[in-house]
User: Fold these one by one.
Assistant:
Number 1:
Amino acid sequence: MATHARPDSLPSPSPAARPVPELDPALVGEWQAGGGELIDLFTQARQRLGGVAAFRLGPRPTVLVTAPQAVQHVLALHPDRYVKRSHRARLLIGDGVLAATGEAWQRQRRLLQSQFTGRGMRRYEQRIAEAARTTAARWASYARTGQVFDVGAEMRRFGLDTIWRSLTGHPLDAATERELAALPAVVAALPQLPADGAAAQGAVAAELARIDAVASRAIAAARDGAAGPDGPGLLHVLLEAAGTRPEYTDRLIRDELVTLLVAGHETTATTLTWLYLLLDRNPQAREQALAAGPEGSPERRQAVQALVHETLRFYPSAWILPRCAAEDDVLAGYEVEAGTDVLVCPYLTHRDPGLWEDPGRFDPERFTTPGRRPAHPGGYLPFGIGPRACLGLQFALRESTVLLEHLLPAHTPRFHSTPAKAVYSITVRPDGPTPAVLGG
């Protein structure tokens, strides 16, 4: 587990704003010389300087934000002052809703938002359940045969099947699954790609071509009226929008489709993989969840959801949320100049002992017992908060809970080996395979 920050109270605002405290450049130099992870630098800044801290990797300081009040100020209260710039995955997702800004983002989000809340979510319930049953049947086969399988690969397969059914109305077929293996390959490659856009594009050209071909076929099939056995999916919503909104060109529909594929399976798969790794170290948590109530009961469901939430506390879907100050501002009593890069880090907020009791302990009951988690909305934000919070929050929680309700009572993975560390990329993912066999 990562090093946890000591509790530091956020400085009270004063009439005269002060410069953000900055980490000693010598310490930054030591970190650079040692080849440390970015999270190590963040942790050091948080420990030494508190919930609003700065460090300098270039000519201008970058401001790190982990204190809940400051998190809320940046993400929820003043999103017009702290704006999103180019998304790290833009090469892959283009102008999809995750990367879009301004009025374009507002239009795209409004269209999609209705699909992931209330009545919109209900139309995907059956598809989620079918994907979960398919995965459960596969795990039952692994249990019968004693076959070694990779838990992470299984979770990616489930997540991809679920979002593919939701997008197209069709279950994921083997050929499409093989082609869409290019998605996690590009996501994993993004941090190491050249800074030059053309060179980066060229480095993953073959993978992007495979993704584009799958998207093109799916769009053509949906346009021809080829609804799946469960009826039309999200892709049909995008095509209907194209009939009245000229901005929904084939390229934008492709970008939204790929955005939903990436966001709809990568984060869920990573969360579920971490969950099983955490249960391997904390087997009593599984027993407590199953003992909370009989199968299908609200108590059982709440306890299973708490497993997911506690996993997301350790490994939030969005471990870092970059923003740029669009204008001068005062943040928690500190001066933030226009143009400053601001990094909100839920990963460290979730591990702050000033907010969470014994944060290094895996304790799902903190999400079922009143008063055990921070009351402040900026204290727990695995999907972000504010207007740019993840659209798929309810979808991700629902699919994770449904799958676990199928798998937890029947199977306990026994890992042959587990990854030694985490990789801090677009998501925080295990660094290595997760081979296992199943026990009852």
Number 2:
Amino acid sequence: MPLLHKIAAVVIVCAVVLGLALPGERRPREKAPAAERAGNTSGTADAATAAKASGAPAPGGSASPSASATPTGPIPAAAPGAVAVKANELGQVPVLMYHRVVKKPEMSLDRSTKELYDELTRLAKGGYCPITAGEFVSGRFNVPAGKHPVVLTFDDSTPGHFALDPSGRPLPDTAVAIIQRVAQENPGFRATATFFLNKELFGLEGGPAAVALKWLTQNGFELGNHTTSHPNLAGMSEKKVRDEIGGMEDRIFQLTGAHTATLAYPFGSVPRKEKWARGDGARYSFQGIFLAGWRPSPSPFATEFDRWKIDRVRSEGKIKENDCTRYCSTAWLEYLDKNPDERYTSDGDPATVSFPKIAEDRLDGTYRARARSY
């Protein structure tokens, strides 16, 4: 087994031993173990374009409304349509984490092409609508009423994620082609995902890499930063942390002319000082950072949400390895199906945040102007 995957396995096992939250449990985030808090994320677009497209501010800005503008008094009533679909925009959102996609898995983090197709089809049939990591962090995304947002993230930019055939179309067994296939077979399932990039860039170099990245951004997919060489940032100096992140950002910008909006921590390992990863002047400035933990993320409108420690769920079946019977995607999706009141359900209006009155104490006050309850 390659060294990177051995390290990843050790991190995951340690997280389980330290005690991760059971499905449905929400522990105070500051008490969560380091491995659970670690994460991965990325976004695409240069500052102005990303802000205009998703409603998010340019990198370096705040994605939340100003606290000084927070209204007081009773929260207005939710629209009848929101009530009819039992909207709960303070519910949990699955942010799924994928690594290699291959025909026949060889390592624990691999997913077969069939497993990816089956899981995406399950999501589509279950009423989930994919959004990008950048959109999720911004709190501005358009999901139809009664549907549930899901964030599909792919780490390490391996060849199985994306490649073009001679005619300029995605190769059939790549993640991108599978996502597009599921979208074609299930109207309303959006063909999008966020790819957290390392220097390998799908095994491409030079011109082909630039063509591939531009194809992705022009066809509704998002790019994110996952550092240059995928190191453990936890024990590194400030200079090395900034060089790893900034070096990858420089390359992405050189190839696409756009900056990323989000970062993914390799192995979910957080630097000694988190501010080193959040921004470095004009070189990089993220809107959010994703972890590698084993639970769905709180809603971006909930008080529990921390844009610098966004939880993700490993895509995997209910197997014994690393306690996937309780913490991997199959188990969590089953849990949310059985407990729909805990899942994020959209009201269909990107300008409002609708939820049951009983959940009002979970609302982040900076979103009170958009709040509607029933």
